[in-house]
Amino acid sequence: MAHSKPLMVIAIDIGTTYSGYAFSFQHEFLADKLKITTNKVWSDGDNHLQTSYKTPTSVLIDPYGDFHSFGYEAETKYSQISETMELESVSGQRFNALSVFAMSILYLKEHFSGSLQQQVADSEIQYVLTVPAIWDEDAKQFMRKAALHSGTLGDQLAIALEPEAASIFCQSLLANSRSDDEFCDADDISRNGSRYIVVDAGGGTVDTTVHEVMLNGDLKELHKASGGGWGGTQVDDQFTELLLKIFTTKCSLEDQVAESGLSRDVRLTGDKMRISGKVMQSLMKPTIQKIITHVETLMADPKCRGISHILLVGGFSESPLLQEEFRKNFRSVNVVTPLDAVLSVVKGAVIFGHRPGAIGIRLAAFTYGIRSLSTFVDGEHDPDKLIMIEGERKCKDIFYRFVSVDEEVPYGMETSEHTFSPTYSGQTKMTVAVYKSTVTKSKYTTDPSCFKLGSFRVDLPDLTGEKNREVGVKFIVGGTELKVKAHEKTTGKIFDATFNFVTK
Fold first, then answer.
1. Are 348 and 373 in contact, with CB atoms under 8 Å apart?
2. How much is the pTM?
3. Which domains can be identified in the chain, with CATH numbers?
4. Measuring CA to CA, which of 68, 98, 116, 270 is 20 to 30 A from 477?
């Protein structure tokens, strides 16, 4: 972080369908964690104001590839342009994803700055970007790069996992709840040992995480984040398919409705089409069932025993049908949706920015290590891994493990340091390749379970000692992002690794 105690924290939530931001000052957080400001009014660029906590995730880019507008303004302007423009293809022009995300982040930053009634130096602000918990390291790095392109320096940026942020918000909400609050029926989840599942149902994805409250009030992850693409946009796709079924033939609309088999549930009245609630529910239930099936799998996992509550957050969770289906399928636990569930993530991300160690223990999502060399041992190492280096028999592609999958890792934990030496005499640079594995023990980085995350370079300018020069490597884990440090022992220089993540 830029400062141990930033003057203010702003969280930016760029969702599949809607985006927004929230912020609070340090003094507000110390007095009341829930004193968080969210923007409630957005302009459509046509002298009209839209009252909403979020604005559509729509970016309008001009023919030269430059940013034009965002949100309601982008949609309004595009609809006006579309009346006169001719499109050459359905797909249209393609734009670099990194640039589009950077434009989105920059717009929300500038919108936030314009809404402040007092000036705050950018260096005094801690920015927090929310991402789905199921995203891997290269996706998080992508968001970091997009933020950097928008002018946000790396040490001012933190990444918050969406269901974790929602969990942090719900804990703070409970701490401030009164007996007449709708959410106070879940007050036992704030007690030591309480266990619950957070289901963050958004537009594109559904993320889940399972937490236990520890004695000091911090949260412990019981099951690594999981989920899938079962958000509200899947319901949109189902509705689109229904319309295509009705409107894709050349016969009259009345005849097409009759031929579709929907005549009892779809009626045409004047210039309106009325669709029964039964049909609308049938469009939603397949997506909802996918979410329920996933949560059932979590509930059956021995690591998740003792779950007392399911917290439904995110925009899609405000659906009465989704809430009803959850209560029907999980009668043994309390299913709770906090007020303004759509803001749980972004508000929780603000609290996370002030208190990044709120998730005290996480589970390692993978086994992490680096590629190394070792002395070749006959009968132990595969013959095809044998290489000769300056007359010595070496085994290449050894997976040196630092952290094991599902290992409990406290926030900010540093692993033991392992020392490596240059491969060749006179070597002036050392490349450290970082890998992850889906299993606890991998022998080689070429095993099917292993995947390269990226690499970083350590400069070795002092040739004294030749191959006996040492570089110590250790991982920093337990946060939302993986970090690696290298210590070049001759000069004492510390390298904070900036990954060049592999693009899948």
1. no
2. 0.87
3. 8-163 (3.30.420.40), 184-230+289-362 (3.30.420.40), 233-282 (no CATH), 364-496 (2.60.34.10)
4. 98
